[in-house]
Amino acid sequence: MTATSDPAERLALVLTEGGLQRMTARVLAALLFTEQETMTAGEIADALTISSGSVSTALRSLTGIGLIERVPAPGSRREHFRIREGAWATLMSNQNAVVTVMRDAAEQGIAATGPDSPAGRRLAEMRDFYDYLWREMPALIDRWRADRAGAR
After folding, report:
1. I need a surface site. Which of 54, 81, 83, 104 has the fewest CB within 10 A?
2. Could you tell me the residue range of the domain that residue 95 belongs to?
3. What pLDDT, in 10s, does the model give residues 47-93?
């Protein structure tokens, strides 16, 4: 990368610690920190000194979760990629599926342990938290989008 490589590598490390695959995190950081509008897979591989296969796998993953997109580049036969507009809100919207799974798992745990047991009380707090997130996340994302639209 460039002069921003230290912050980019730190971000990649944080993303990795948060559960993202290492190369996927590095590719995401490269796309976030680039001064270019878009990057090709080859440019990413060169910037990170990693294999084209690693870049390809990371790009597929990031495209699949909606963080990046392929964009046309007139005059170029190579695919170009960039961070999607609204990617972070999309990512959090997709997290509602995870929130639902966690809430349902807590509910099943309460049914198995009993609501008045120590485990049941802990699981009830977990269920209530994820239920709150599930109810509030759509409105939070809508407010964020409205704030962003008003700032433009």
Report:
1. 104
2. 87-151
3. 999 999 999 999 999 999 889 999 988 888 899 999 999 888 887 87
Q: pTM of the full predicted structure? A: 0.74
Same domain, 120 and 136: yes
3-state secondary structure 91-123: HHHHHHHHHHHHHHHHHHHHHHHCCCCHHHHHH
Domain stops at, among 83, 102, 117: 83
Quote the number of domains for the chain: 2
**Which of 36, 67, 83 finishes a domain?**
83
| φ/ψ of residue 117, rounded to 5 | -80, 160
